Each structure stands twice: as C-alpha cells, then as structure tokens.
Amino acid sequence: MAHLSGAFTVERRAVKIASKVLQAAGVCRYDDVSKCRRLYVDEHTCDRCIESWLLSRARKELKEEQRSDSN
Fold first, then answer.
1. Which pLDDT score, from 0 to 100, does residue 2 have?
2. 60 burial class (0-12, 13-18, 19+ CB within 10 angstroms)?
3. In this predicted structure, what is the pLDDT of residue 4?
4. Strand, coil or helix: what is 57?
5. H or E stretch including 14?
6. What residues in the chain have per-residue pLDDT under 70?
7. What is the rounded distance in angstroms from the CA atom of residue 45 to the CA atom of residue 64?
8. How far apart are CA 51 and CA 62, in angstroms?
C-alpha cells in the first residue's frame, strides 16, 4: 500500500505544479476573472482553485474511461 500512496503524492505534486504554472500564465478556470465567486482573490486562492478544478476534471475523465472500458 505504501507504493500506492507514493504514486498519489507524485500525482498530487504534479497537479500543484500545473496549477502554479497555469496561475502564473494568467489562466483562470473561468473565461473572465470577474466571474470568480470568491470575495478575495490572491495567488494562493487561484492556485487552490485551479488545483481543485484540475483534480475534478481528472476524476471525471477517469470515470468516463472506466465506463467506456466496462462496455
């Protein structure tokens, strides 16, 4: 089981790095930053928001792949 947790750690770190790169590039999950529902937006908030969005997209795609593999 330790091997699996290591993989999760590496994947988690990759998502954190990706979110920092996207945030630094000025990418937002919304097409316009003014659509962000957060009251206070800073670098840390954007990193966490993008990280959350990337993880939810990955989960969604994995579920879709599992459904298509089972059919």
1. 46
2. exposed
3. 56
4. helix
5. helix 2-24
6. 1-7
7. 29
8. 17
For the stretch 37-54, pLDDT in tens is 877 778 888 888 889 989
Which residue range(s) make up the domain with 15? 2-70
Say if CB 22 and CB 2 are below 8 A apart. no
Q: Is-above-0.90 flag for pTM?
A: no
- For the chain, what is the domain count? 1
DSSP state of 26: T
Please, is 39 exposed, middle or buried when counting C-beta atoms within 10 Å of its C-beta (0-12, 13-18, 19+)?
exposed
Element (H, E) at 62: helix 43-70
